[in-house]
DNA sequence: CGTATTGCTGAACAGATTGCCCAGCCGAAA
DNA sequence: TTTCGGCTGGGCAATCTGTTCAGCAATACG
């Protein structure tokens, strides 16, 4: 579960050049191919590397507007609300949280006007008491993992 | 920029079996290899598919705690705060938003206790007036894109 | 102090895939 | 009607993958 420096470099390489093969990696890292292969297998069965799915940009798909909605749920309706939100394609992510809200979800929409439709669909459900939405203007730090990987690899 | 049904199926296939090759995809989809290759190239240069970087699980790296922090920034300090937050590895994502807060960021930490350290580091910066943090308990809908891709592909 | 275990190396092999090229076909647009 | 873009089906050399093997060093263990 802890990763060492070599694991870190493997992940870094993959992040920078995803199409790179095991053989080329072993050349760059100066280790045997079998080693890289074994490390990769281990990282994947460990769950450190979940997969290599394509990263799809919602904006390029026609959904340039992102928003975060904080939802307050009526007691005991949590499961229903989760199931409801899971059916809305524009809900990209849903968390239950501590704090003033009960859930936090990430939404996308085709436009600010379309966001209204999405929100209506999200909150148009019985268990949701209140929703407060924050529209994303800029994304100075896109979802990233590299710095954390580097830190985890160094701490070994 | 709009994707058709074939594009959608390509993305779906890639999402389900990321290690699949172009040749195998063409077999499954019943089209020529060149077609799949051309579609893939187009999707990538379009920016619809950003890449195939490894999806790393912070929890497996030893950071099982996720939180969202809403930050209020002192007027005119936005750029400095952004630069500051970008240097914190535990900040996985940062958005500037409309609404009561000014920024929303996703944090991870090694434990609830460690989260305190992370938050101290995040807010220990001059331009940040106030921070309110929500710890994630459950993640009923992990970051996903498939339903949106399906919707976008059907609307053609 | 021996001994088993684990991880890495370097190598080999057949089989599959990739990148690239081409000619032909077809539907849509000009 | 002509042109153009997209898809097909094929072929080629080069490369990579999956897998296996023996040797070696460091480590853990009895």
From TrEMBL, chains A, B:
Molecular function GO terms recorded: sequence-specific DNA binding
A Pfam family: HTH_24
Biological processes per GO annotation: response to amino acid
Cited SUPFAM superfamilies: Dimeric alpha+beta barrel, Winged helix' DNA-binding domain
Keyword vocabulary terms for this entry: DNA-binding, Transcription, Transcription regulation
Gene3D superfamilies with a match to the protein in the record: 3.30.70.920, Winged helix-like DNA-binding domain superfamily/Winged helix DNA-binding domain
Domain HTH asnC-type intervals: 3-64
GO CC aspect terms: cytosol
Family matches, as PANTHER family: LEUCINE-RESPONSIVE REGULATORY PROTEIN, TRANSCRIPTIONAL REGULATOR AZLB
Name recorded for this polypeptide: AsnC family transcriptional regulator
């Amino acid at each position: 579960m802890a990763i060492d420096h070599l694991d870190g470099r493997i992940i870094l390489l993959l992040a920078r050049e995803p199409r790179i093969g095991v053989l080329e990696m072993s050349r760059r890292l100066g280790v045997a191919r079998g080693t890289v292969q074994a490390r990769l297998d281990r990282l994947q069965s460990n769950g450190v590397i979940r997969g290599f799915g394509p990263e799809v940009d919602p904006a390029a798909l026609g959904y340039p507007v992102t928003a975060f909605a904080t939802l307050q749920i009526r007691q005991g309706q949590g499961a229903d609300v989760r199931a409801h939100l899971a059916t809305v394609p524009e809900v990209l992510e849903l968390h239950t949280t501590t704090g003033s809200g009960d859930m936090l979800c990430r939404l996308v929409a085709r436009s600010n006007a379309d966001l209204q439709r999405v929100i209506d669909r999200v909150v148009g459900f019985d268990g949701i008491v209140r929703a407060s939405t924050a529209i994303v203007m800029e994304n100075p730090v896109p979802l990233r993992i590299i710095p954390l990987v580097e830190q985890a690899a160094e701490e070994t």
